[in-house]
Design goal:
about 120 residues; Rossmann fold; about 40% helix; single chain
């Protein structure tokens, strides 16, 4: 069974996404910010990370960069799920693999997770 790490500071959203992903057959861990997510990853490496961008302590962009810099985690797919405006005008690709505009439809979240896990 594939493991999903959800990272968001909105409790209700974590609950809804966790329920939908669990119902779809995934094991789900939840974290409230990037620091909490990295602590979770030290204990249990997920197959995919779905993270918000704007969070306290460590934001989603910093989390994505930390995951990419860690040799054992660098190839874990990451989906960014945010309502914030994200600019990708640099020559470097973003440190995430997929972008979901919040509030994403649950079908879009599930299909993105499935697509990224199939590619991994």
């Amino acid at each position: 069974m594939k493991r999903v790490l959800l990272v968001d500071d909105e409790y209700e959203l974590l609950e809804a996404l966790s329920f939908a992903l669990t119902y779809a057959g995934y094991e789900v861990d939840c974290a409230r910010d990037g620091c909490d997510a990295l602590a979770h990853m030290q204990r249990q490496v997920p197959d995919i990370v779905v993270t918000d961008l704007m969070m306290p302590d460590m934001d989603g962009a910093s989390l994505c960069r930390s995951v990419r810099e860690h040799p054992q985690w660098a190839r874990i797919p990451i989906a960014l799920h945010t309502s914030a405006h994200v600019e990708c005008g640099t020559s470097e690709p973003p440190p995430w693999d997929a972008f979901l505009r919040k509030p994403a439809r649950m079908d879009d979240v599930l299909s993105t997770v499935e697509r990224l896990l199939t590619r991994a």
